[in-house]
Each structure stands twice: as C-alpha cells, then as structure tokens.
Design a protein that fits this description.
The chain is mainly β. The chain has helices at residues 13-16, 170-173, 197-201, 303-307; strands at residues 39-40, 57-62, 72-74, 77-83, 96-103, 109-116, 136-138, 141-145, 150-155, 191-196, 214-216, 219-223, 243-247, 253-256, 274-278, 281-287, 292-297, 313-314, 317-322, 351-353, 356-362, 372-378, 383-384, 390-396, 405-407, 410-414, 419-424, 430-435, 445-447, 450-454, 459-464, 471-476, 486-488, 491-495, 499-503.
C-alpha cells in the first residue's frame, strides 16, 4: 500500500514534440487497437495473486467508492475514472466525477480531473457514480467524456508545463455552481479543449455518461450517451445523434450519425464504436441502443478538411443489421419493466475480427426482457443485411454488458447470470461454460494463455484460455469488480470499486 505523492517531473521533450510515445506494451485505449477485441499479446502475466499477502502485487492504491471505468496505460501513466469519496485533495469536497492520472511505476498521484455533478436531476449524473468513461491516449493528450457529458482533451503532464490553451477556465470548471471560484493546484488537470455534447449536439445523458472514445487519425468517434427521460417513458432528445465525430486537435464537432437511432432508444446509448477494414474499405461499427449494429464509412484523413470550419456532416451508412428483428418496433417504451418481451439494445462494444463483427445483444438489465445472445455478423455486405449477414447466434442465459474476446478460433463472453462462455468462432457452438454464480458486468481479457475477469461480488477469476475449461485461480477482492482487466508492459491492472492493483509475476 502506498500514500499519495506529489506530481513527478515533466514528460520527456520527445513527448512535448508530439511524437508517438506509445510504448510497445502500452494499452492506450479500451480494447485491442481499433478492433476493440479484448485480447492482449502481453506475456509473463501472473496466474495467481493475493492482495492479503502481497503475492504478485507490485502496488495498489485507493480509488474511491465507485469505479466503473476500465484503466488505460500509456507513456508511463495509468488513467482511471472514479469518484471523490474520500477526497484526495481537501479543496475538492463532496460528490464529484474524477479521472485519476497515476505514475505507472508505483501508482503515485500525478494529477486528477475533478468535475462537479450535473445539477437538478440525478438521472443526468447518478450520485457517486464518478467518472465512468475510460480515457483514450494519443501522443501527449488524453481524451475522455466527463460525468457532465463533455468531451475533453487533457494534457498528459497536467499543469506541470503550464496551462495549455485554448481552454483556460479549469478553475471555474472544477468549481460547483454558485460557489466562489477555486484556485488551481499542482495536482489539478489541464484541459486543452472542451466540447459540451449537451449544448453542441443536443444530447440528454441518462444515468451516467459512458463512452470509450475511438481515435482514428485526426478524428475521435464518440458515443453520446443520449437516453430516456427521468420518468423512463420516452426519449427526451430523439433528434440528437447517438454517435458523433470530433476534431482531435480543436474539439470541433465534425460529423454525426443521422439514422434516427435516438428515436428508438429503449434506455440509453452506451456502446462505443470499433473500426475495421473490409475489402479495402474502412468501416466504423456502432452497437446501437436500438439493438441494431451499424457500419458507417470512416472519414478520410484529410487534414485540411478537418481543420476547416463548416457544417456538421452526416456519416454515411454502409450497412445495418438488426440483431433482434422479431422484437417490438413500435411503442417500445410500453415494454419498460417487462421481463419477458420487449426490444433489445447493445451495451458492449462490437468487436471486428477477420471480416466478422462479434457482439452481445439483448434486453435491458434494469427495465427489459432477460433474453440475450452472442452473435456473429458478416461485415462484407451493404444495405439492410438483417436477412443475410447472420453467421451464427448463440443464446446467453441473461443480459450481457461484456465485450467479447476473439482468440485462436474461440470467442469468450460473459453474462449477468454469472456465466463465462467459450464458443467456437467458426460456427457458434458451445465449447464450455463456467458458472461463477455472480453477476458479471466486466469484459473478459485474454492474455498470455489466460482469461481474466471479475464479478459484482468481488470475486476475480483466472481461467486457462483454450478449449479445455480449467480454473487457475479465484480470489476474493476488497470490493465489487465492474471494470475490465488490462495488460500493459508486463503488468496486469485490475480495478475494483475501491482500489487499483498493479500485478506482476513475483511482484510483492
């Protein structure tokens, strides 16, 4: 266990020059590269650990009382979202969303982005949920979506190299409404630019903003977290986009989907986009809150067009696939609280692998039917491919939030009934199922011949990856596990609701 330390020295000049500093073993965004596949090529990872004895624990640090954000690791930093209970800085009192930036070597605090809650309605920004969106790192910038539904670019150095513009209102931004403006401290974040999705895209977030930003060259693809009213009786902003594209350099809104997805939201848009190349064509895959997977044409990397001011353009749809075509399509909110029938939605990220898209889809955890599937879709079509593109569909016992992991001819996924599924990627046949007897919201990570995943009761499982079911280790953690494990630079990072652990073989 360690105590918080003062910020470290500035990053090397190489990073300041904007060079690509992603180390060979970094994990700068959630999921493998652009495909979102939950697979890592890291080796030498622990097959067991014990927080009580310190076995294979390199370091651990307190987070707060809620962590739904998966850690990312890049340029010697670990970024993870949490809340402000208890405060790490006595100036920041009360409920806040927090993005921590920690030193990868020992977990010491470098800086933190502290954001007051949205005012007036708890369904806009759920109490004590913290900052739920993972960060995405590119060069000397980190990008995330705050609990106030703002897309922000953050200087990885924090304020150590001064306050970088054009955004210079960090002090006002971190001060709750109606209070005297706070002074910036040495551990406060440096916001480079900020885009308010509520103001600029007309979005109404629901429960919590959750988006893992997909970086593609000069662009950021962002799920907007548009959702229902507080009464859960309809969509308050049906005209708002569920997916937008942002200029990575300036924070300007570049493009948006105009498929009318928000009109068909059953609860909220929580799935984040993936990217893949199909027959020489770059496609953005988006799991809609209406239970439909969409493939959009990726924007060309035209620096001049990107910088030029102009109207927001529409993303061009290549194909769409309805994962639940027999579900109700009209008056869908009359099915709220119906556990037997109703529409489907997608909460996990779609995964692209070898011209196929893998996705978990089904009824809503809180308000909908329990029926759910792991599906495999042919990504090579065009138009409405609902009748033609289904390769296979594998039934799950209950709702699933898990992004699949596709490796060595197998697909791994989990459901909220507590089952870990291993399925043949070729035909969707069951290989094995491991019942944990506990709800799982996290996604499985496959790395170094092992599968890592945690549960809501705080049990962390390590299984052997492969066609033979083998439990290598089970450990009771200090608190529930909602986020997914991450492997980077020979280290396994596991976040519980209350602590972040860096795990290494023979580490103590």
């Amino acid at each position: 266990m360690i105590s918080w330390k003062t910020p470290r020295l500035a990053l090397p000049a190489l990073l300041l020059a904007g060079a690509n500093l992603a180390f060979g073993g970094d994990q700068p965004q959630w999921g493998q590269r652009h495909s979102r596949n939950m697979v890592s090529d890291q080796v030498g990872l622990p097959a067991r650990f014990d927080p009580e004895t310190g076995e294979n624990v390199l370091w651990s640090v307190p987070l707060g009382t809620a962590c739904y954000s998966t850690p990312v690791v890049a340029a010697g930093r670990v970024l993870v979202g949490t809340n402000n209970h208890p405060p790490r800085d006595p100036r920041h009192q009360g409920d806040r969303g927090v993005m921590l930036c920690l030193d990868e070597s020992d977990g010491s605090l470098l800086w933190q982005l502290v954001v007051p809650k949205l005012e007036g309605d708890i369904y806009l920004d759920w109490p004590r949920a913290g900052m739920c969106s993972p960060a995405t790192v590119a060069g000397d910038r980190a990008y995330t979506v705050t609990n106030r539904n703002e897309v922000v670019a953050l200087d990885l150095e924090g304020l150590a190299n001064g306050n970088q513009g054009p955004f210079l209102e960090e002090a006002r931004h971190m001060t709750p409404q109606g209070e005297a403006e706070m002074e910036l401290g040495e551990t406060d974040a440096d916001i480079v630019w900020l885009l308010d999705l509520r103001a600029e895209a007309g979005v109404r977030p629901h429960d919590a903003s959750h988006s893992s930003i997909l970086k593609d060259g000069p662009y950021l693809y962002v799920n907007t977290s548009n959702g229902l009213t507080s009464r859960h009786d309809g969509v308050e902003r049906p005209e708002a986009p569920a997916l937008v594209v942002v200029d990575r350099a300036t924070g300007r809104l570049i493009a948006e989907e105009r498929e009318g997805i928000s009109e068909r939201i059953f609860h909220c848009a929580w799935s984040s986009p993936a990217l893949g190349e199909v027959n020489g064509r770059r496609l953005i895959f988006f799991g809609g809150p209406d239970g439909v997977v969409y493939a959009f044409e990726a924007l060309e990397h035209d620096e001049r067009a990107e910088r030029a001011a102009g109207p927001v353009q529409a993303l061009q749809r290549v194909w769409k696939f309805d994962c639940d075509p027999d579900a109700p399509k009209e008056d869908i909110h009359s099915y709220i609280r119906n556990r037997r029938e109703g529409p489907s939605s997608i909460k996990s990220m779609p995964v692209f692998h070898a011209d196929r898209v893998y996705v978990t889809v089904g009824g809503d955890i809180w308000w909908g039917k329990q029926q759910s599937w792991l599906q495999c879709i042919d990504a090579t079509g065009s138009g409405d491919v609902t009748e033609d593109a289904l390769v296979w569909s594998y039934p799950l016992e209950r709702h699933s939030c898990s992004t699949p992991a596709v490796h060595d001819g197998l697909v791994y996924a989990a459901d909220t009934a507590g089952n870990i599924h291993c399925v043949d990627a070729r035909d969707g046949r069951r290989v094995w199922v491991h019942p944990t007897r506990d709800q799982i919201w996290a996604s499985p990570l496959v790395a170094d011949g092992k599968l890592y995943i945690g549960t809501r009761r705080g049990n962390f499982w390590i299984l052997a990856a492969g066609r033979e079911l083998q439990v290598l280790h089970q450990i009771r953690m200090d608190s529930p596990v909602y986020s997914s494990a991450v492997a980077a630079n020979g280290t396994l990072f596991v976040a519980t609701m209350e602590r972040l652990y860096a795990l290494q073989q023979t580490g103590r």
